[in-house]
């Protein structure tokens, strides 16, 4: 299993490629947006605005299945929005 979190701002729309590497540098397809980063210059370029179709991207790239588990628990200080946990796993196989 691979358990991870990733912002999914396009949860009702398809994922959008914001930037990609072409030739010798970055080609911006959308206005640049950066996340904080504790190393380097303190910022990381956002290359994708993920949608719920992230599970399709993962399946196409790896053949693995992914579940999205929303986390919304105000008693733990976790408000709704951009707080999804993704769990990727190998599909079950049957022995012959």
How is this structure best described in words?
The chain is mainly beta and 96 residues long. 9% of the residues lie in helices and 35% in strands. The protein contains one helix and nine strands, in the order E-E-E-E-E-E-E-H-E-E. It has a three-stranded antiparallel beta sheet, with helices on one face. The mean pLDDT is 88.
Q: Roughly what fraction of the amino acids lie in strands?
A: 35-45%
How is the biggest beta sheet arranged? 3 strands, antiparallel
Any idea what the radius of gyration is? 16 Å
Q: Overall mean pLDDT score?
A: 88
Helical content class: under 10%
Distance between the termini: 24 Å
Number of helices: 1
Unreliable stretches: none
The structural class is: mainly beta
- The helix-strand sequence is EEEEEEEHEE
Summarize the structure in short.
With 96 residues, the chain is mainly beta. It has 1 helix and 9 strands; from the N terminus they run E-E-E-E-E-E-E-H-E-E.
List the topology elements.
Blueprint: E1 2-5, E2 16-17, E3 19-22, E4 25-28, E5 34-36, E6 43-45, E7 48-49, H1 54-62, E8 65-70, E9 84-89
Antiparallel strand pairs: 1-9, 2-7, 3-4, 5-6, 8-9
């Amino acid at each position: 299993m691979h358990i991870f979190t990733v912002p999914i701002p396009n949860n009702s729309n398809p994922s959008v490629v914001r930037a990609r590497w072409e030739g010798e540098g970055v080609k911006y397809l959308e206005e640049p947006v950066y996340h904080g980063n504790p190393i380097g210059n303190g910022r990381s370029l956002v290359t994708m605005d993920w949608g719920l179709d992230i599970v399709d991207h993962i399946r196409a790239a790896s053949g693995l299945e992914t579940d999205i588990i929303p986390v919304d628990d105000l008693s733990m200080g976790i408000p709704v929005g951009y707080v999804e946990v993704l769990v990727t796993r190998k599909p079950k196989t049957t022995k012959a």
